[in-house]
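Before a colleague's protein record goes any further, I have to sign it off. What it holds is a sequence and that sequence's fold in token form. Would you go through it and say whether the fold makes sense for this chain? The record follows directly below this note.
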Amino acid sequence: MRLDISLQQTQKLAMTTELRQSIEILQYNHFELIDFLMKESEENPTIEVEVGSIEFDYYSGSKASNYKDESDSEEDIGFEKYVSSQETLYDYMYEQLISIEIEDDERIIGEYLLGLMNENGYIEGDLYEFSNRYEFSFMKVKKVLKILQDFYPIGICATNLSECLLKQAEDKNYDEVTKSIIIEDLVDLAENRVEFLANKYNKTNKDIQESFDKIRQLNPRPGQFINFTDNPVKFIIPDLILEIEGDRLILSFNEESFPKVGQNSFYRDLLKTNIELDAKAYLKEKFKSTNWIIKSIEQRRETILTVATSICEKQKDFLLDKGHLVPMTMKEIANEVDVHESTISRTVNGKYIQTPNKIIELKDFFKGGIETESGEVSIEEIKLFIRTTIETEDKLKPISDQDITNQLNDLGFKISRRTVAKYRDGMGILSSSKRKRY
């Protein structure tokens, strides 16, 4: 069955329930597919599903009689063994709060204040309004806030950036000029106004540069020192395995983790007996649905493998560490494997390939390109040129975006200064005026 044919509006065909389900199965990622099959196994007695212990424990639901765990034993390692606990920043701070000896009302204030803490570790809101609303003494609120600000990580529970950085600077015993810059001159720091502050503090440019360097080593987001999240930890199981032998790419489907779907033998045998007509009609309808799901899953498997094979051939040098990503569009791959472009989009989203070095989502192979006189070059290569040029520049006379643009144009790349600036910003690299050192 060609999924893409029925997707074309020009065909003007009514989309059947089965076809819609087949399209949905194709676009499911690994765990979405497991979730779908689990629900089907609960509603359809004729379908039998087998998955590994990791996937089964991930859902931690009741086990349907026709839903099997491949490794059902006391020695199985549950999914929780593979991921960190779901601790939040609030939990981490609260544990510190209850571990110290303070008055009951101070503990209550502390809990309220932690509730005002954002993901970066800052206390948001007006403390006067807070104290009035909950009828707390403002002085006691300030006292408890100071207690929280002594917790780890250093700089946590600040009410603004200066307060956060100053706490860290004091912990590191920074000099008074550096601390004054944190208190009064963060805007000048952001604009790299070294000479201006050298005059203000009667220091040399080098002294101010050293202060800037110290401040930039501090953490403006102490709440993110650990990747706390309220959402489940993202756990990836690759759909494909890529092995490399010399210059050969060997791509295979990850059969070990792929769910096994089949007909339930008990109900298949039951259908052959003289059961009531209504029961027989019911089972026939359920077996029809099961067979369609089995067919759709096999089609999904073949489509992913076919599309991934085409992608890997185009990106062979990149996968062999011999080059960068080649500019490639979904339309090109669609034409090559003879499917609709929308099928490619559904196929590559949420599907992962395990290479010898890392796991890559298939959609990440599709990067835009920059036109040159001889064709197209990957945006990644342009970014690499920008980064390398800046890393090797004279730090006393940083190269400007326009100079980089001119160099690229001389090499045949049709690119504007604005685009160069966008790529530079995207890589977290400051402008030339802010990179200048003294």
Residues 369-435 form a domain with the Arc Repressor Mutant, subunit A fold (CATH 1.10.10.60). Residues 46 and 282 are 10 Å apart (CA to CA). Confidence is low (pLDDT under 50) at residues 1-15, 53-65, 69-85, 229-233. The first helix runs from residue 17 to 27.
